[in-house]
TrEMBL record:
Protein name, per record: Anti-sigma factor antagonist
Any coiled-coil regions, as ranges: none
NCBIfam families: ant_ant_sig
Lineage summary: Bacteria, Bacillati, Actinomycetota, Actinomycetes, Mycobacteriales
Source organism, top-level taxon: Bacteria
């Protein structure tokens, strides 16, 4: 059952040039929070809010899809770690990150040692299904 919740948030900021769009969809009992654009100190709160709402729904799994992220700053990485820590013990958590803008920084700072990373959404969903 694929269900789309339109919790899309557009964080275009004219002065900074930062823009981030965050959406939440459900694939069965797995929540998928996808970000697109720039995740920096100005836009990370949007991702944080979406992840907080997804965690509150107590999904069996939570996937953060960063496939369409062009830039991931340390603020965004902090949001990922906080969401991972906030998820219930029964909620499996992972991140989709492929490429130099997302997977490389997550690996360099050690987040990939804490949070499982996958190269595609399909891989992540397959890993989280029972």
């Amino acid at each position: 059952m694929n269900e789309q919740h339109d919790s899309s948030t557009d964080g275009a900021t004219a002065a900074s040039g930062s823009a981030c769009e965050v959406t939440e969809t459900w694939n069965g009992e797995i929540a998928v929070v996808a970000a697109a654009g720039v995740v920096d100190m100005l836009t990370a709160p949007q991702l944080e809010d979406a992840l907080r709402k997804a965690v509150a729904n107590k999904p069996e799994g939570l996937v953060v899809d960063l496939t369409a992220v062009e830039f991931l700053a340390s603020a965004g990485m902090g949001v990922l770690v906080a969401a991972h820590d906030a998820a219930d013990e029964g909620t499996r958590f992972c991140v989709v990150a492929d490429g130099p803008a997302t997977s490389r920084p997550l690996k360099l700072v050690g987040i990939a040692d804490i949070v499982p990373l996958y190269e595609s959404l399909d891989e992540a969903l397959a890993a989280l299904r029972p």
